[in-house]
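Re: that chain you flagged

S.,

Sorry for the slow reply, it's been a week of failed gels. I finally had a moment to sit down with the sequence you sent. For the record, here it is as I used it:
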Amino acid sequence: MTEVTAKVKMETTKGDMLIGLFGNDAPISVENFLSYVKEGFYDGLIFHRVIPGFVIQGGGFYPKMEKKDTKAPIKLETKEGLIHEKGVLSMARTNVRDSGTSQFFVCLEKVPSLDNQYAVFGKLLEGIDTLDEIGATPTTTVGYFADVPKEDIIITKATVIE
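Prediction finished late last night. Pasting the structure tokens below so you have them in one place:
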């Protein structure tokens, strides 16, 4: 069993989620995520991508798909045995392996095709109902962005829980 070394409470307009982070298994990704949380970076951003049966993604855009500037990308961390299943938190990235910054996704179900391709760094300890509600949100296309929720799902606050 993967050890939870830190916790983050993510409050959204659809409800709250308590995230357990795997600092021993994904130290670079966890440190990166925590640095963004501690700076208040995620407050006011949206979940900008919802794909039913796959993932919800957030951490990079304000409402109206206005991109937020990030820090430099981090190295991709994958570890055998860390799998993408429902409630797992993972680093989003481009097609470039070491391109993860502030964006993350949460799996809506088991997605083995993502294993060892994306950095698993946490899981939901509470808030599966919130995850399911976000995952069921109707989507549209905004500019060249597909799968954008029709209503803004805002991360109102993300805080480290001591």
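What I noticed first: Residues 10 and 159 are 7 Å apart (CA to CA).

Talk soon,
D.
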